[in-house]
Amino acid sequence: MNTVSAREAVQVVKSGDRVFVHGMAAAPKLLIEALTERAGELRNVELIHLHTEGDAPYSRPEHKDSFFVNNLFVGANVRKALDEGRADYVPVFLSEIPALFRKGVLPIDVAMIQVTPPDKHGFCSMGVSVDAALAAVQTAKVVIAQLNPKMPRTHGHGIIHHSKFAAMVESDYELPTHAVAPPTETEQQIGDLVADLIPDGATLQMGIGAIPNAVLLALKNHKKLGIHTEMFSDGVVELVEHGVVTNEMKTIERGKIIASFVSGSKRLYDFIDDNPSVALLDVAFVNDTAVIRRLPKMTAINSAIEIDFTGQVCADSIGERLFSGVGGQMDFVRGASLSEGGKPIFALPAVTNKGISRIVPHLKQGAGVVTTRAHMHFVVTEYGVADLYGKNLRQRATEMIKIAHPDHREELEKAAFARFKR
Predict the structure, then answer these.
(1) Res 194: pLDDT
(2) What is the pTM of this model?
(3) Cβ-count burial 78-94 (b if 16+ within 10 Å, e if not)
């Protein structure tokens, strides 16, 4: 196995190329740094990726003529570049990103990825991030790989023979991790209310963060739960160890936890390493509504930045300012609503840390509607559960105001009366 330096590997990148960067905790740090060091030699290189952990040095102001960041999901490390016009964002369902590569809508010149070292048969694993990266690798003209023995070897679709790589670079460092903080009282109140909506035998989708973790903590007395989700974190490991998550009721990939990427602690990475009960698959499959709807009692738990009292969900921006992305929210909301016994649930605190209501009469100007009012079922705050399904606009407003923070209910009532005249 011949390896080269990161500086040598990134010589394949030319001015005007579109370069895919492996996302999440799999972002190839050495290749990113080496490519950024070539800024003086390159012009108009497009970096395209989902959220990446760690630094994004190519997005700095001094490199604006060399690199342009085209985000498929916006992380904290590139928000300033978006604000200042050195980056942009492609609104797209997570399930459809692989098609952008495979159909040639966004052809990839170079894919930079991080993988495990080859096994005795020459195969590497994409580890913690298969998602849309698999399609990028399959369609890129050139693939360069950073090998890292600290990357967990995962089962599923992300297995690639080293002969696919134009160059390989050796590395040896721990992947970025996320500490799991105990939930606040408010977060656990929300978690308990959401858990009450989840029946035994359900299949779950949920993301990372305080409220998903609070929900998972509240599920320890449940039975025969399954996991089919775009991503999962540490709380799922706890439920496996408690015998709560068994995946025995699933009709697709029975007995297995299915995801497209993971993000969490070293404990989580150790759990998925060479674990045949976990499969990381192409997100075009994992987030396919036609697949999701076939899972019984599919329960999708998502969050939002704000929700208006008719049920429109903004989850990707604060007004015009991009904060995250469309992601897989709509894939699972629709899939869960079509599942036999399924439930799409939105869970969020009633107010922000600054006391601003997250239940509003109108979304902020420029805010993106990620989930439409026609897709809404349950909304949960610490003040209760609003079931919007089948309700008209005035009835929805009444339900949403009931679960708003008490300090904001009078203002919301006035806005509802002005809008609906009763």
Answers:
(1) 98
(2) 0.96
(3) bbebbeeebbebeebbb
